[in-house]
Design brief:
The chain is α+β, with helices and mostly antiparallel strands and 104 residues long. 36% of the residues lie in helices and 30% in strands. The strands form two sheets. It has a five-stranded antiparallel sheet with strand order 6-5-4-3-7. The relative contact order is 0.14.
């Protein structure tokens, strides 16, 4: 079977192994398979193991994939810092209520 020639939303040729971005959600990944069925041409992305319509993909580069991973890690770190700060505030409030009032 001949290899399908497929093009991204900007008309650039794509192939298995290319880094792409799904324009509706910003999901990025590497094309691991390209297939065609009665509904159109689809690309399987390694990051989600889902098929995406070729015309909704845009070629990108590895830096974009790394950037997405970095942003996700930063978000996780910020959330953990916030949770820790809230726990510290909560503990400080408990400690101040349990301290003797000196009136006793």
């Amino acid at each position: 079977m001949a290899e399908l020639k497929v093009f991204d939303i900007r008309g650039r040729e794509m192939k298995v192994g290319d880094f792409v971005k799904y324009i509706n959600t910003g999901t990025v990944g590497v094309i691991t398979e390209i297939m065609e069925d009665a509904e159109g041409i689809w690309a399987l992305l390694d990051s989600t193991e889902l098929y995406y319509k070729i015309e909704l993909l845009e070629l990108t580069d590895e830096i974009t994939k790394a950037e997405a991973k970095r942003r996700s890690l930063e978000s996780d770190i910020e959330e953990k810092i916030h949770m820790r700060e809230e726990a510290i505030k909560s503990l400080q409030n408990i400690e101040s209520r349990d301290a003797p009032g000196g009136a006793g």
